[in-house]
Amino acid sequence: MDRAETNAPGAHLRAVLVLGLPLVGSHLAQFAIHLTDTLMLGWYDVEALAAVVLAASMFMVLFLVGSGFAWAVMPMVASAAAEGDQTQVRRATRMGMWLSILYGAAVLVPMLLAGPILLALGQTPLLSGMAEDYLRIAGWGMVPALLVMVLKGYLSALERTRMVLWSTILAAILNAGLNWMLIFGHWGAPELGLRGAAIASIISHLAPLAVLAVHVVTARATRDHALFQRFWRPDWPGFLQVFRLGWPIGITTLAEVGLFAATAVMMGWLGTVPLAAHGIAIEISSATFMVHMGLSQVATVRAGRALGRRDIAALRLGAVVVLGCSMVFAALTMALFLGLPAPLMGLFLDPGDPQAPAIVAAGVGLLAVAALFQFADGAQVVTLGLLRGLRDTRVPMVLAAISYWAVGMPVAYLLGFIVGWGGIGVWLGLVIGLALAAVTLSHRFWRRLQRLDAAPSDGTAPGGA
After folding, report:
1. Which of 16, 24, 314, 411 falls 20 to 30 Å from 7 in CA-CA distance?
2. CA-based angle 151:388:453, to the nearest 5?
3. Do 84 and 269 contact (CB within 8 A), yes or no?
4. Confidence of residue 459 (pLDDT cuts 50, 70, 90)
5. What is the Cα–Cα distance from 337 to 185, expressed in whole angstroms?
């Protein structure tokens, strides 16, 4: 956006939608991969499904921490591109890939030794062994998965999101086809079950990596960046820049995901029906959250580019517009959760299952609580994106950790078990934690904006102090 658009909300809205719709679609396609794995392994074998839930949870925790480096690339590239600094674009992206490779190699070790780790965490020998079998194969996909994230962040920062969308759709389609072939032994392939799902996972990471790598090398807008030329040459200042910005992002994401994982454990204490209702309600909420996640990336890119131009007025108006889009979608989601909770829950259940009515009844209450946290969840993740655009990640990490773990988790336990409200109480703890994060992070962002307004235009980007 140029300065002529600074005071034109319609221009900001068009820019948000053009950039955001492919990113939202990309996140929904990524969610479809997870959903496909769950459904197909559930059709194949209950024990295989349970094992892959354990294995995928371990993979995802490690992946989320490492993906912080890809998130860090986005604001750095966005600002550098706005400044016309093509060298910095290359440095940030290349060192993001370096960090992803080093991190992926390091975390391969615990995945290869997943069996003893899961046994120590109290899992059964059978499930621990099956999960280890899966991760001994799927773990090799960590590096390509993280490299895909870096290249998606790079292209998003350049506002070239169509290829981000199409590469993710390719991965989703490929994953579904390979699962069907390798898990069940269709189309002449051997029936590999859990191991087939692991092989499909690796291929589904490698294929979009190849597509994105070819694209950035050949596309007119990106080939001059020469990302892979002399790739082996270190750039230690750039390496440290990406590392310092990226590791707090990974920890912040882990803190939020950990909060939802911990609530699953607490719901399990309440019994099978509450846990099943929780699992379905979380799947539904996660699907709608993908929209806010896409808008958060838009916020990062738009804020980073405005910062690179030192255009604080555009940064402010752009923040209002992207937050407004998130709130509008949250209102629609709230209406959906309150208006059609039972049909939504029923999509995931066999009507003939004798426990289905009880699960639906429990899930209706949980979706009502989920409706309450739609505004808070959207506001906190979009504001995090805005702060990342300002390269402010360390204090937001602390604010998020306090909101989720020092407040949200204890309140969830208090309301769920001490007060005795059960699953509704546990989910109300989520509402309070997310709301506190939304308030504190929003205060942080608008204070930072005031400081930028008052600061001299000396070309210095704000840090995370």
Report:
1. 24
2. 135
3. no
4. very low
5. 39
Q: Where are the domains of the chain?
A: 20-234, 248-465
Residue 178 has pLDDT above 70, yes or no: yes
Average pLDDT on 285-310 reads 86
Taking the CA atoms of 342, 344, 349 and 351 in sequence, report the sign of the dihedral they define: positive
Looking up tokens 């909060």, which residue turns up? Answer: 259
For residues 66 and 104, is the Cβ–Cβ distance under 8 A?
A: yes
d(CA 432, CA 28): 26
Q: Is the pLDDT of residue 4 over 50?
A: no
Of 347, 335, 369, the closest CA to residue 267 belongs to 369
Reported as a pLDDT band with limits 50, 70 and 90, residue 2 is: very low
> φ, ψ for residue 420 (rounded to 5)?
90, 25
Q: Look at residues 263, 316, 326, 318 and name the one whose alpha carbon lies nearest to residue 293.
A: 326
Taking each helix axis from N to C terminus, what angle separates 422-454 and 312-339, rounded to the nearest 10 degrees? 170
Question: How much is the pLDDT for 102?
Answer: 94
- The closest alpha carbon to 329, from 377, 298, 292, 302, belongs to 292
pLDDT of residue 1: 44
Q: Which one has a higher pLDDT value, 353 or 168?
A: 168
- Judge whether 64 and 259 are in contact, CB under 8 Å: no
pLDDT for 3: 46
CA 249 to chain centre: 11
Q: Which of 374, 376, 426 has the alpha carbon at shortest distance from 403?
A: 376
Residues 100 and 70 sit within 8 Å (Cβ to Cβ):
yes
Name the token pair of 23: 């990113």
Distance CA 291, CA 274 (A): 27
In angstroms, rounded to a whole number, what is the distance separating the alpha carbons of residues 10 and 15? 9
Distances (CA, A) of 280 to 221, 298, 327, 388: 42, 28, 24, 31
Handedness of CA 127, 260, 209, 111 (dihedral sign): negative
Which residues lie closer than 8 Å to 239 by C-beta, 6 or more apart? 95, 98, 99
The pLDDT-based confidence of 51 (bands split at 50, 70, 90) is: confident
Alpha helices in 67-191 (DSSP H): 68-83, 86-112, 114-120, 125-138, 142-157, 162-184
